[in-house]
């Protein structure tokens, strides 16, 4: 797979630069390693994207399954489904890059918030994918990735955070593009959209995950 060479990063840089201003340049480096890494400091931040990430994602999608826009979860057992899996991997990479860029923005602009940096980075990724890049599937597959981690890697805190954040990503996508993604509501827990489970119970934390949505327009200075 020609990772990071599908023109995505160039498109991200051009379109986000047209919408947002930062006090310092963020260097984006693609190299060995898994996943992505947020900038290390407030001056000259470097954002690292690993090209071993697909090798990490593929077994996860094989075991957990791949979401469709209709809200089903399929196993990549046929050539067509494996093509969908490869697209899911690519879309996850896009979303993770945007998530890391979200850290770059909040690291460089100290935005007051009641939420945590990881959640804000996902909110930023959602906004950038849906509203700036016209790439909403990136958020579908970010949620797919997070819910897969939540289901398959049972380190309690990490699993719970990934589940809560995965559902919040689906929720934002559904609210942002209700017609196109109406089927994905069946991927959400029963009662989620009615808000019954927001307080306490296994989805505690989701309420706080939804708060920073209001912050997104503040960053769009341009
Ligand atoms: Zn992060």
Provide an overview of this structure.
With 222 residues, the protein is mainly alpha-helical. The protein has helices at residues 8-19, 53-64, 79-108, 117-132, 137-152, 156-176, 206-210, 216-219, and strands at 27-31, 36-37, 46-50, 66-67, 73-74. The strands form 2 sheets. The chain has a 3-stranded mixed beta sheet with strand order 1-3-2, covered by helices on one side. Strands 4-5 form a two-stranded antiparallel sheet. A hairpin with an 8-residue loop joins strand 2 and strand 3. The radius of gyration is 17 Å and the shape is globular. Mean pLDDT is 80; it is low at 196-222. Bound molecules: zinc ion. Zinc ion (ZN) binds at residues 38, 99, 103, 118, 121.
Mean pLDDT across residues: 80
What's the helical proportion of residues? Answer: 40-55%
**Coarse structural class:** mainly alpha
Radius of gyration: 17 Å
Q: Tally of extended strands? A: 5
Integer count of domains: 1
Enumerate how many helices there are, as a single number: 8
Q: What ligand species are in this complex?
A: zinc ion
Approximately what portion of the residues adopt beta-strand conformation? Answer: 5-15%
- Biggest sheet descriptor: 3 strands, mixed
Strand order of the largest sheet: 1-3-2
Shape: globular
């Amino acid at each position: 797979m020609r990772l990071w060479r599908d023109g995505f990063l160039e498109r991200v840089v051009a379109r986000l630069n047209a919408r947002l201003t930062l006090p310092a340049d963020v260097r984006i480096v693609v190299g060995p390693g898994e996943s992505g890494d947020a900038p290390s400091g407030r001056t000259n931040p470097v954002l690292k994207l690993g090209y071993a990430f697909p090798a990490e994602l593929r077994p996860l999608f094989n075991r957990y399954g791949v979401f469709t826009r209709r809200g089903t979860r399929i196993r990549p057992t046929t050539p067509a489904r494996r093509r969908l899996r490869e697209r899911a991997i690519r879309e996850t990479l896009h979303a993770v890059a945007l998530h890391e860029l979200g850290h770059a923005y909040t690291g460089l602009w100290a935005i007051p918030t009641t939420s945590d940096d990881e959640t804000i980075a996902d909110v930023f990724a959602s906004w950038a994918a849906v509203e700036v890049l016209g790439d909403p599937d990136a958020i579908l597959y970010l949620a797919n990735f997070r819910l897969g981690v939540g289901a398959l890697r049972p380190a309690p805190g990490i699993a719970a955070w990934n589940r809560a954040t995965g559902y919040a990503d689906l929720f934002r996508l559904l609210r942002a593009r209700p017609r196109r993604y109406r089927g994905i509501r069946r991927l959400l827990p029963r009662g989620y959209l009615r808000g019954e489970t927001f307080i306490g119970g296994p989805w505690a934390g989701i309420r706080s995950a939804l708060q920073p949505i209001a912050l997104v327009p503040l960053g769009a200075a341009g």
